[in-house]
Structure formats: C-alpha cells, structure tokens
Amino acid sequence: MEYFTEFGFAGLFLASFLAATILPLSSEVVLTVLLLNGLNSSLLVGVATVGNVLGSLLNYAIGLRGGDFLVREILKISEEESVKAQQIFKKYGVFSLLFAWVPVIGDPLTVVAGVLKINILLFLVLVTSGKLIRYLVISYAVLMS
Question: What's the rounded Cα separation, in Å, for the pair 52 and 126?
Fold first, then answer.
C-alpha cells in the first residue's frame, strides 16, 4: 500500500481501480493514509470513486462479453462466488448493485450484471452511488477521529 500512497491521487486512482477488479487491494487504506496526510478530502473521495467504478465497469464488460474463461481465469471468481452473486441478484434485483463495494460479493455482482445485460446507465448510477457513499463514510470517520 505504501507504493500507492507515494503517488497521491494517481496512486489512489490505481489502487481503487485494481481493488474493484482482480487484485485483493484495499483502496480504503490508501485513502486513509492520504486523508491523514492532508490531501483534499473531496478530491480524494472523487478519485477513489471514479477509479473503483471504472474497475467495476471492467468487470461488467467481462461479464457482458468475456464468458467463463475470463470470469474464472482472469477475475478468479469461483463458481460458488458466481452462484452466490446470482442468488443475491435474484433476491434483491438490480438494487443489489448498491453493494458492489462489499468484499467477496461485490466483484461477482458487477460481473453478473454484465452477464445479465443490466442497463448500463442503471448499473453506473447504482454502483457509483454505493461506492461514493462508502468512500464518504470512510472519509468522515477518518477525519472525525
């Protein structure tokens, strides 16, 4: 994580993007360090949100176009994770995308959204809303502690 914090906003963008895709990264840690170093909190939240949403959009595209090979071999989403995401989607519908930020189920949810060909604008609104709220809450908690 130290590597990402050295690059400030660009490092946060990259960490946030990668955290939403194939690597088990914690963009929250990078965000916290940068907040504590006094960088502009509004810009940090915006950069983290955009990076994370773009990572989710890549997952969506892989689900839409990629098929099983990319899902299993590139994103490393197991059959079990995929089934669980599909069950959540069936139970809660597209509004489950508000929780695309949740560890373990978030990435599979965004892939399943692509597989199911969820409307891209609806996808972006829901995923962005959930991720923005998460980063706002984290920033508030860090700055108020």
Answer: 13
Q: In angstroms, what CA-CA distances link 135 with 41, 127, 139, 141?
A: 10, 12, 6, 10
The answer to whether 49 and 132 are in contact (CB under 8 A) is yes
CB 18 within 8 A of CB 122: no
Please give the model's pTM, rounded to 2 decimal places.
0.89
Helices 106-115/41-61 angle, 10° precision: 50
Cα 1 from Cα 15, distance rounded (Å): 8
Count other C-beta atoms under 10 Å from residue 108's C-beta: 26
pLDDT digits (tens, 9 = 90+) for 115-142: 889 999 999 999 999 999 999 999 999 9
Q: How far is CA 88 from the centre of its chain?
A: 17
